[in-house]
Amino acid sequence: MTPFFSIIIPCCNVAPYIDQCLRSILDQPFQDWECLAVVETSRDQTEQIVRDFAEKDRRIRVFTQPRSGSPSAPRNTGLDHALGKYVIFIDGDDFIQENSLARIAEKIEAHPGADLYPCAIVVSDSKNGKETVWDNYPDNTTLEMTGQKAIVSYLQHHPDPCPMAQLTVCRRSFLNEKGLRFVYGLKHEDNEFSPRALLLAERVVPLHEPFYCYRIVPNSITNSKQSPGYELKHIARVKRSLMAFHAEMSKKPGFDSRISKYWANLWLSKIFGRWFYPWVVDHTPRRMRIGTLRFMLANGTDDYLLLVQSAPFMKKLMSRVLLLAVRHPSSCAWFSELMFRMFFFLSEIKSGFKEKPGRSISSDASSIPACSTSTGQ
To answer: Which fold has domain 5-216?
Structure first.
């Protein structure tokens, strides 16, 4: 029989946490599931722990593969072998709440056949023990909507939404029909995957169900310290892919132009902050920043300029300033950096903050302020 849920778990060096993760699934009263644990080469006992669980419950299937550096490859492996109607992504250092599968299944059965069912997560900081609940959608969100309306809804509610794939239960056939997979080796894979999945969805039903417990672990792939060049290269890959996706989708009939406005405002804020925020300029070599910007624009500037068309006036202006630095680094980079210092100074005065805000669960912008994401900046 086809299981209701396929639960896909990337596992790599998570021996201290994977026991709780798997037990949180096994202890669910709702038992109509399969679990695909994809173990990448680990330095600890992760694989042995997972295999011990699999020996006791045949619904747990174990796959092994070389380490890839991100959850993308193991999630894709899980998707390629999944049999369930709906897919849930869980990371090996996280877990799900008691009776959450039954509550989600009940809500899905009440509104079957949607492509995506966004939920909520409980964020737990291992350093201070603080827990917060995050939901991208307001409580009064329309019960069912298109993916385009969902994007507008959550960007109106949260100018900087959390992009985690673990927030959403996905209809497996939808992912396969649309060819939706994660980019191999990409650190910020959720940032690239989530906007594409949401826009391509025809039916989205927010559940507002806080079923997922996300643990902020200092040494995890997302939160581990990496060199500035490593970070920028990955973010550049995300933005290059998303700008190409926007360029393709914005030309299709029925595309909601408000999405271009919201995405331009958000994505340009991220780009400006990651490459030109004063702290970044002071601590990251110019050659590295310009090089990764050129990588982001390696396919040309058409996709970038198309996005810029929908941005507020000041962001349009600063987008041209950015291109000056990329095209003429030896003569114009210093001028661009000076202009961005002034831009951030004015943005921070307008927004009422002087320090870095950031959310640790938003892997693309956890440490750099996105300047103002209001449409008026």
So the answer is: Spore Coat Polysaccharide Biosynthesis Protein SpsA; Chain A (3.90.550)
